[in-house]
């Protein structure tokens, strides 16, 4: 009978920030999967564009007012997001609470602005293929924003009510990473939905 090797892992840390932690790898894997869906959506958009002479077909170009306001708001949210991430990584509970509240309010404002964006698409989702893909792209990103607002709101509540553990600060740090993903994807989707019809 062979002897089994036993390793004592009790000295290992119970949490870690960044690539040393499992939460980071899970978040990155999630972003890769969701990013591939965004890529597929953009490929479909340009595939449909090549199939027709007029784009958008028989409707006006989408309005850019609310979408641009949302773009500016979401890009500026990277500042409190970075501050929340840094505060979490130095276990600064007061600063974490402050910046999570700010981010939650920004997220709510972004969702409200997104509602107004739908009114400026100038097409219904069932009007034609153009309307369908525009609504799909906008809705995919809207779902990401809305779910992260809920996630951030829950995280904010937990940071006020406890229990406050080191792992909770890791959650804040990784949630900040995911918000960067949401912000980064809004830029190409914004350009495709609102400016590609004007440029192509």
Shape: elongated
Strand fraction: under 5%
SSE string, helices as H and strands as E: HHHHHH
Quote the distance from N terminus to C terminus. 72 Å
Low-pLDDT windows of residues: none
Q: Summarize the biggest pleated sheet.
A: none
Q: Using only CA atoms, what is the Rg? A: 21 Å
Explain this structure:
This protein has about 200 residues and is mainly α. Helices cover about 75% and strands about 0% of the residues. The chain has six helices and no strands. The protein has helices at about 20-50, 65-75, 80-90, 95-120, 130-160, 165-200. Helix 1 runs antiparallel to helix 5 (about 130-160) and helix 3 packs antiparallel against helix 6. The chain is elongated and about 70 Å long. The chain starts with about 20 loop residues before the first helix and ends with a helix. About 25% of the residues are buried.
SSE map:
Layout: H1 22-50, H2 65-76, H3 78-89, H4 93-119, H5 129-161, H6 166-199
Helix pairs in contact: 1-5, 1-6, 2-4, 2-6, 3-4, 3-6, 4-5, 5-6
Short description:
The protein is an all-alpha fold.
Keywords:
200 residues; 6 helices
């Amino acid at each position: 009978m062979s002897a089994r090797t036993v390793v004592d892992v009790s000295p290992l840390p119970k949490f870690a920030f960044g690539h040393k932690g499992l939460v980071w790898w899970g978040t990155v894997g999630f972003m890769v999967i969701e990013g591939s869906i965004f890529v597929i959506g953009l490929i479909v958009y340009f595939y449909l564009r090549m199939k027709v002479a007029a784009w958008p077909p028989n409707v006006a170009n989408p309005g850019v007012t609310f979408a641009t306001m949302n773009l500016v708001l979401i890009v500026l949210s990277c500042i409190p997001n970075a501050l929340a991430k840094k505060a979490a990584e130095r276990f600064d509970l007061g600063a974490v609470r402050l910046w999570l509240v700010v981010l939650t309010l920004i997220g709510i404002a972004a969702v409200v602005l997104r509602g107004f964006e739908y009114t400026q698409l100038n097409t219904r989702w069932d009007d034609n293929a153009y309307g369908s893909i525009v609504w799909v792209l906008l809705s995919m990103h809207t779902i990401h924003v809305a779910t992260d607002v809920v996630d951030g709101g829950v995280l904010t509540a937990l940071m006020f009510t406890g229990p406050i553990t080191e792992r909770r600060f890791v959650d804040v740090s990784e949630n900040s990473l995911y918000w960067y993903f949401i912000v980064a994807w809004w830029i190409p989707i914004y350009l495709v939905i609102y400016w590609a019809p004007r440029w192509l």
